[in-house]
Amino acid sequence: MACSATAQIIQPLSINSARSVDNSGACTKILSPSSFLGSTPRINKKLFAVNKSISSLARRPTIVFAVSSDVVKEKKLKSNSSLSNLLITKEEGLELYEDMYLGRAFEDMCAQMYYRGKMFGFVHLYNGQEAVSTGFIKLLKKEDCVVSTYRDHVHSLSKGVPAREVMSELFGKTTGCCRGQGGSMHMFSKEHNVLGGFAFIGEGIPVATGAAFTSKYKREVFKEDCDEVTLAFFGDGTCNNGQFFECLNMAALWKLPIVFVVENNLWAIGMSHVRATSDPQIWKKGPAFGMPGVHVDGMDVLKVREVAKEAIGRARRGEGPTLVECETYRFRGHSLADPDELRDPAEKAHYATRDPITALKKYIAENKLASEAELKAIDKKIDELVEDAVEFADRSPVPARNQLLENVFADPRGFGIGPDGKYRCEDPKFTEGTAQV
Amino acid sequence: MLRIMGKKLGAPGFTALPAGLALRSYSSSAKQMTIREAINSALDEEMAADQSVFLMGEEVGEYQGAYKVSKGLLQKYGPERVVDTPITECGFTGIGVGAAFYGLRPVVEFMTFNFAMQAMDQIINSAAKTNYMSSGNISVPIVFRGPNGAAAGVGAQHSQCYAAWYGSCPGLKVLIPYSSEDARGLLKAAIRDPDPVVFLENELLYGEAFPVSAEVLDSGFCIPIGKAKIEREGKHVTITAFSKMVGFSLQAAEILAKDGIDAEVINLRSIRPLDRATINASVRKTNRLLTVEEGFPQHGVGAEICASIVEDSFGYLDAPVERITGADVPLPYAANLERMALPQVEDIVRAAKRACYRSLPIAATA
């Protein structure tokens, strides 16, 4: 049984690369807004040979649409490698590279620090999945929200939380982004709108849906010009959880500006996705609730970015939510305490050859967007930044004793703080009505 | 008006004027208000005052509220602010929490708090703990409200009292009103509060009317969170109670008065933070304590109060603390069994007499 499970997993890999898309004429059509809702059902046949039910899909010309990663390849082939036809400019390319390299270097440093005893508890590393975080989050504004799970270091870094603060938080020092009170799994930042960091899978999805609800509320009730979008990141294991379905329903029902990003790395600790899920194709769960479901190769940052542009654009325009399944892989175990014995080394080796950072480097080099030296300079800069973060965290103080009882409540006296910042019960005029009844 | 307000709320001796006396002096002009009207008016006023307050729950809109508590609000504020949800407690509670994280002030209604068990993860892990985990970065100004405790013949799965469960969680404020004044003032304070508040109402009390004074009707009226109220002053035994049990305790106190036992009845109002100061002061005066609650006995509110008294006022106790609680069984359906499983006025009277007269500890089998 175990053998066949692994065999099934490996199959999709070859399928991805071999998947030829019969959309030569539709190349530009795919990327236009309305076509997200159109479909060429034939694409889907080759996705996973595992599941025969795809044929039923072919009969339904509905919303389901798997954006093929080969769109990018086609576009590239069509062009003469002239810069104007590339998906990214030089600045964008370097920005993406820097962000992914930061994620990788930071996580590698976390592993080192953990084994040296500076970091403790549960630490879940993101190695290998950087393309998803960078591809999506680099398209956001500061006011947009990101909600993640316990694998949230790199999401926070991509959103703009300084590496120093994240590292200090992991060390449990008072200079961390949550002053050491949250830890690895609970990264919160009001300034950068990172709304957590949740240990329970699926717990962040309703919270993200609530933030999207707030954006819509601001538009409808406050009449503000608000087009803030929320991204909810979660994994394949979460897609069997009740909260996920409850939120797909409500987000589609109320057309909330949210993108549900599934980081399908095929494993939930030691439970392989196919062993846990009746229908492993997660993107199909979107159309069941009335939103587009998109599958993308999550090891390629450019493909992710193209899909992200479309999904985020949809949300900003008020067209509603999208479910994006990114097929990705984590190079390390579930957490630093996970011996990672159940995954086939051949599978790991295969995905190691599809390292997103190497792939982007290759793309940049092939299209002469930047020189080797420039990339090396970025590497050096990031390495120094991470070293500095470690040193900063090391020399930061641990929380003071009185910090233990602080911040349980925003208002510990329990009576409420008035608009002038003082306690209401101390204001002698507080019973003068503030409302028309 | 201002001086009276100062006396009532500013002074630490909030109980300087026995509430009964204060209300009686207004009784000729006092209006009667049901709990339902009290909650409805509180919601109405807070929603009018602050646009970021919105109500979300099952049947709160077009159905006018499962118990008609939110009557008229949909018509007045529209569907964006009075949101009918699908039957997805965990999902919509999480949506409320996320909206609170990001700047709004939701009021999430549970049809009963029994259904809130499906949303426990969001209430405790997302709402209660976030201000602490983010070290003050992200506060959660949310109110969870709905009926709690036993109704009439609704069976075990619709009748549990959750005061003790929520009361044990740091990060939550737990309020439980008895009268209309409580309901109005505490709900308004809860909505204005920047922290997660669990507001436990009682279905059987919704239709009950209480006299309310002019201050209570003022749209700025709030009651401090964390302060108990002495409903009836006495000198022989202290009875602490909350929600419907306050009414039963007051009735028991009338009966006891005929036997020469002058009971002091404290309406807790706030389970978390518990007003230990008021309870201790009262016990130091009367030397005997009786706690009354509807919930299950083990790890209940009475257990916490007893431990608190033992810690702070052990030397003042003249008799062991008596606990009157619901029976240690899931609530039965048959009317006579249900009556046996919940505290009644006779149980409170008997326990008070035990606390006053017995010299040897006996097993508490009322």
From TrEMBL, chain A:
<dbReference type="InterPro" id="IPR029061">
    <property type="entry name" value="THDP-binding"/>
</dbReference>
<dbReference type="GO" id="GO:0004739">
    <property type="term" value="F:pyruvate dehydrogenase (acetyl-transferring) activity"/>
</dbReference>
<comment type="function">
    <text>The pyruvate dehydrogenase complex catalyzes the overall conversion of pyruvate to acetyl-CoA and CO(2). It contains multiple copies of three enzymatic components: pyruvate dehydrogenase (E1), dihydrolipoamide acetyltransferase (E2) and lipoamide dehydrogenase (E3).</text>
</comment>
<feature type="domain" description="Dehydrogenase E1 component">
    <location>
        <begin position="99"/>
        <end position="399"/>
    </location>
</feature>
<dbReference type="InterPro" id="IPR017597">
    <property type="entry name" value="Pyrv_DH_E1_asu_subgrp-y"/>
</dbReference>
<keyword id="KW-0560">Oxidoreductase</keyword>
<dbReference type="InterPro" id="IPR050642">
    <property type="entry name" value="PDH_E1_Alpha_Subunit"/>
</dbReference>
<keyword id="KW-0786">Thiamine pyrophosphate</keyword>
<keyword id="KW-0670">Pyruvate</keyword>
<dbReference type="InterPro" id="IPR001017">
    <property type="entry name" value="DH_E1"/>
</dbReference>
<comment type="subunit">
    <text>Tetramer of 2 alpha and 2 beta subunits.</text>
</comment>
<protein>
    <recommendedName>
        <fullName>Pyruvate dehydrogenase E1 component subunit alpha</fullName>
        <ecNumber>1.2.4.1</ecNumber>
    </recommendedName>
</protein>
<dbReference type="Pfam" id="PF00676">
    <property type="entry name" value="E1_dh"/>
</dbReference>
Automatic annotation (TrEMBL), chain B:
<comment type="subunit">
    <text>Tetramer of 2 alpha and 2 beta subunits.</text>
</comment>
<dbReference type="InterPro" id="IPR005475">
    <property type="entry name" value="Transketolase-like_Pyr-bd"/>
</dbReference>
<keyword id="KW-0786">Thiamine pyrophosphate</keyword>
<dbReference type="GO" id="GO:0005759">
    <property type="term" value="C:mitochondrial matrix"/>
</dbReference>
<dbReference type="InterPro" id="IPR033248">
    <property type="entry name" value="Transketolase_C"/>
</dbReference>
<keyword id="KW-0479">Metal-binding</keyword>
<dbReference type="Pfam" id="PF02780">
    <property type="entry name" value="Transketolase_C"/>
</dbReference>
<comment type="function">
    <text>The pyruvate dehydrogenase complex catalyzes the overall conversion of pyruvate to acetyl-CoA and CO2.</text>
</comment>
<dbReference type="InterPro" id="IPR027110">
    <property type="entry name" value="PDHB_mito-type"/>
</dbReference>
<protein>
    <recommendedName>
        <fullName>Pyruvate dehydrogenase E1 component subunit beta</fullName>
        <ecNumber>1.2.4.1</ecNumber>
    </recommendedName>
</protein>
<feature type="domain" description="Transketolase-like pyrimidine-binding">
    <location>
        <begin position="33"/>
        <end position="208"/>
    </location>
</feature>
<keyword id="KW-0560">Oxidoreductase</keyword>
<dbReference type="GO" id="GO:0004739">
    <property type="term" value="F:pyruvate dehydrogenase (acetyl-transferring) activity"/>
</dbReference>
<dbReference type="Pfam" id="PF02779">
    <property type="entry name" value="Transket_pyr"/>
</dbReference>
<dbReference type="InterPro" id="IPR029061">
    <property type="entry name" value="THDP-binding"/>
</dbReference>
<keyword id="KW-0809">Transit peptide</keyword>
<comment type="function">
    <text>The pyruvate dehydrogenase complex catalyzes the overall conversion of pyruvate to acetyl-CoA and CO(2). It contains multiple copies of three enzymatic components: pyruvate dehydrogenase (E1), dihydrolipoamide acetyltransferase (E2) and lipoamide dehydrogenase (E3).</text>
</comment>
<dbReference type="GO" id="GO:0046872">
    <property type="term" value="F:metal ion binding"/>
</dbReference>
<dbReference type="InterPro" id="IPR009014">
    <property type="entry name" value="Transketo_C/PFOR_II"/>
</dbReference>
<keyword id="KW-0670">Pyruvate</keyword>
<keyword id="KW-0496">Mitochondrion</keyword>
<keyword id="KW-0630">Potassium</keyword>
